[in-house]
Automatic annotation (TrEMBL):
The keyword Transmembrane does not apply. Gene3D superfamilies: Glycogen Phosphorylase B. Coiled coil: none annotated. Keywords: Glycosyltransferase, Transferase. PROSITE patterns: UDPGT. This is Glycosyltransferase. It is an enzyme of class 2 (transferase).
Length: 491
């Protein structure tokens, strides 16, 4: 009997896609153990009814392990290396015990874990499973294009693009990422490579190891669709034996649910499937209801981005100057330390023209007819959610994979514009006008966004590539359990 243990990195950009995959696998009839750190689980439980609902599913259980960090530790994603190190050293035994209890007895009488789906960024998930001889698949929660760019770091070092030369021309094309030579500029390389002073830089080393690890999994699972990233996927397939593109997971979950009326779950809507570290402020949906179709600019920089007060004010003036109503997510921890208070003029004018919330039900917001564009930090989940909704983007990437994603949005998929490295008020205003106004550029973007939305939705429908790949993934997982336990009573 197949029993899958899923173990994501404890962050907003990772746990929700893992939960979606876990729910899909559960609906396919597999036993699911979902591992969260205690700290992340407490936060998700406090703000995401989904987690409660999932815990109520048959053959679906949560297990938590300590992350080894102090109670008061802010666990900022930007310090992910420290979080990873703590997990690797202090959570190891807890994870090992979940994977294979020392006394050999599962407390719920479940069969042993037959497959781990580990986060591609979390080497612990992979290492311990290998030690225990449990097959591992890896899920990368970022785009294939960024995973390929990360994989290409050694080549970029060879071509002299990394570390960035002093006074580097940021607009120069780089030659080290195969297939992207004609459009990937130095400024589009993953943000984490910008500050590396040498190849010994710990972040660079981490990125290179994570890339090498990809080949160690039985398969690589990706929240993307073939129609979006086919050329990059063919490069990736040179390093990973088997790749399952099963995205967009949110759409697949909706479709898979509606085709399986026998399953004991409520209907999948964007609302019921969201999972958040912050409490969603749903009042903004009412505010959206009061605005005409495609009139509102939705602004959110995800769960990690931190901006200076100066940048915040520039965005603010740009948005007001554009004359468009806006819905803006400003997390309590989004403004740089010491600068936390929102400017008074921002608060006042927001009441007249905008709606400010600390956290929004983003998938529902993007699906709302009054949203006309998304000013985003280009995190992969946000990018994919915007593509599904057919909403054109204005990209202002902060770090990590976002620099690559935004280049693809602007230059390859042409479903948005990229204002990378700029945030002056006139730039913001100009970009909003360009995308929202009735001119040629706006029209083209809306058309491409609608086409791309159609394509990815089809991919996740029965017979589509992601839907079919998911079925293959389930078969693959089942085959691992029959190989491992051949002849045993659990078969
Ligand atoms: N999100 C949300 N409400 C918000 C802002 C973000 O639900 O107000 C969700 C968003 O839908 C996405 C995730 O948080 O699924 C952010 O992930 P992403 O990969 O875009 O960026 P990260 O937070 O990892 O930088």
């Amino acid at each position: 009997m197949a029993h899958v243990l899923l173990f994501p990195f404890p962050a907003q950009g990772h746990v929700p896609p893992f939960l979606k995959l876990a729910e899909l696998l559960s609906r396919a009839g597999l036993f699911i153990t979902f591992v969260n750190t205690e700290h992340a689980h407490r936060r998700f439980l406090a703000s995401s009814p989904t987690i409660d609902r999932l815990a109520g599913l048959q053959r679906f259980r949560f297990r938590t392990i300590p992350d080894g960090l102090g109670e008061e530790d802010p666990r900022l994603f930007v310090h992910f290396l420290r979080i990873l190190e703590s997990l690797r050293t202090r959570s190891r035994e807890h994870y090992r015990e979940l994977l294979a209890p020392e006394d050999g007895h599962d407390p719920d009488g479940w069969p042993p874990v037959t497959c781990v789906v580990g986060d591609g960024m979390l080497s612990l998930a992979l290492e311990v499973a290998e030690e225990m001889d449990v097959p591992v698949m890896l899920l990368r929660t970022s785009s294939a294009c960024s995973v390929w760019a990360y994989y290409s770091i050694p080549k970029l070092v060879e071509t002299g693009d990394i570390p960035f030369p002093e006074k580097a021309d940021m607009d120069e094309l780089v030659q080290g990422v195969a297939g992207m030579e004609s459009f990937l500029r130095r400024r589009d390389l993953p943000g984490l490579t910008r500050h590396a002073k040498s190849v010994a830089d710990p972040t660079l080393k981490f990125l290179m190891t994570a890339s090498e690890n990809l080949a160690r999994g039985r398969a690589l699972i990706m929240n993307t669709a073939e129609c979006l990233e086919s050329p990059v996927l063919s490069h990736l397939s040179s390093i990973c034996r088997v790749i399952y593109t099963v995205g967009p997971l949110q759409t697949l979950l909706q479709n898979f649910g509606s085709c399986r009326p026998d399953q004991d779950v409520s209907n999948s809507t964007a609302a019921s499937n969201s999972a958040s570290l912050w409490q969603e402020d749903r009042s903004c949906l009412k505010w959206l209801d009061s605005h005409p179709n495609k009139s509102v600019v939705y602004v959110s920089f995800g769960s990690v981005t931190v901006v200076s007060r100066e940048a915040l004010v520039e965005f603010w003036h740009g948005l007001v100057g554009s004359g468009r109503p806006f819905l803006w997510v400003i997390r309590p921890d989004m403004v740089e330390a010491g600068d936390e208070t929102a400017p008074a003029e921002l608060e006042t004018a927001a009441r007249e023209r905008g709606c400010l919330v600390a956290w929004a039900p983003q998938e529902e917001v993007l699906a709302h007819p009054s949203v006309g564009c998304f000013l985003t930090h280009s995190g992969w989940n946000s990018t994919l959610e915007s593509i599904v909704a057919g909403v054109p983007m204005i990209c202002w990437p902060f770090f990590a994979d976002q620099q690559v994603n935004s280049r693809f949005v602007g230059e390859v998929w042409k479903v948005g514009v990229d204002m990378k490295d700029l945030c002056g008020r006139s730039v913001v205003e100009g970009m909003v006008r360009k995308v929202m106004d009735g001119g040629e550029v706006g029209e083209e973007l809306r058309k491409s966004a609608a086409e791309m939305s159609h394509m990815v939705r089809i991919a996740a429908e029965e017979g589509g590539s992601s839907y079919t790949n998911f079925q293959k993934l389930v078969d693959h997982i089942k085959s691992l359990s029959s190989q491992k336990y051949q002849g045993s009573s659990n078969k």
